[in-house]
Amino acid sequence: MHGKTVIVTGANSGIGKATALELARRGAHVVLASRNMAKAESARLDIMRATNNPAIECLSLDLASMRSVRHFVETFTKRFNQLHILINNAGIFSRHRALTSDGFELHFGVMYLGHFLLTRLLTPHLRRGAPARVVNVSAWGHHFGALDFDNLRAEKSFAPLSAYVQAKLAQVIFTQSFAQRMHGTGVTAYSLHPGMINTNLGQDLPNALRVVAGRALATPYQGASTSVYLATAPQIEQYSGGYFSYRTFLRSYTKTPTKTSQLTRDVALAQKLWHISEHVCREDTWVH
Ligand SMILES: NC(=O)c1ccc[n+]([C@@H]2O[C@H](COP(=O)([O-])OP(=O)(O)OC[C@H]3O[C@@H](n4cnc5c(N)ncnc54)[C@H](OP(=O)(O)O)[C@@H]3O)[C@@H](O)[C@H]2O)c1
User: Fold this and answer.
1) Ligand 1 atom closest to residue 201's alpha carbon, by position in its atom list
2) Residues 265, 271, 273, 274: is their CA dihedral positive or negative?
3) In the chain, what's the furthest Cα-to-Cα distance?
4) What is the pLDDT of residues 131-163, one digit of tens each?
5) 43 Cβ inside 6 Å of ligand 1
C-alpha cells in the first residue's frame, strides 16, 4: 500500500479504527475522517505507535452535515490530488428519531446520503488515482430494508431498526449503481457486511441484549478484515458492484460476492434512489 492514499470514515473507533490501523501497517497514507477531532487524534497516535507509519492524519468530517462533507473535500483537495481507496465506514444506531443538519432522518442521512455526497465529490480524485476502489460498509440487515421515499425526513413515522436497515439497503444499491457508472474508468466499488462485531455501535441497545450479544461477537480487527480484503486484494475488479460478507461464526469472509436482497435487483428503484440523492445533494457539477 506504499504510495496509496486512503480515507476511512468513522475511523476513531471500532471497525473503522481497526481498518485504518491495518492499512497503515501495510504502508498506506491514511486519512482518518472523523466528526470528533479529540477521539481522532487519540486514534492517530495509537495507529502511529502500533504501525510506525507517520503518514496518518485527521480531517474533520460530520456526515450529518452536507456543508461539512463539502468542507472536508475542499480541505482534502488542498493536500491531495488523487485518492486510491475510500472506505465509507461510519455508522450509527439510534433508538431516537433525529435529523441531520439538512433535515434528513439521521441513519439515512449519515450512513447513506453523507457517503453518497462524499463519494460523488471525490469521484474526480478517485479517477485520477485509478485503479481506485470505494468500499461501502453496509450490513446483512439490508435484507430487511425497504426504501420509503415519502419518509426520508421521518415525517410519517420512525422505527429505529427500519431506519437502520433502510440506510444499509441504500448503501448496497448505491454501490451497484456507482460501479455501473464507473465501468471502464478503473474505479470500482464494493459493499459488505462486516460481521457481528463488538463495538460502540450497540451502545443504544438494551443492557441485557448487549451483554448476551457481546459474548458471541467478533473483534473489531475481525470486523475490519472484509474491508481490508476489498481495499487490497489483487484482481477483484471483476466483482465491482458486488456485496461481500463476514461470517461471524466461521470467523471468515467471502472472497466472491454473495447474495443481496430482492430489492437490490429492482432497476427502477435504483434509478429513483440515484436521482433523488443527486437532487437532495443539489450538486450541479458532478463529474462522471
Ligand atoms: N458492529 C457490528 O456488529 C456491525 C454490523 C453490521 C454493520 N456494521 C457497520 O459497521 C460500521 C462501523 O461501525 P462500528 O460497529 O465500528 O461502530 P462504532 O464503533 O460505533 O463506529 C462508528 C464510527 O462512525 C462514526 N460516526 C457516527 N456518526 C458520524 C457522523 N455523523 N460523521 C462522521 N462519523 C460518524 C463514529 O464516530 P464517533 O466516535 O464520533 O461517534 C465512529 O467512529 C457502521 O457502518 C455499522 O453500521 C457494524
Assistant:
1) 20
2) positive
3) 51
4) 999 999 999 999 999 999 999 999 999 999 999
5) no
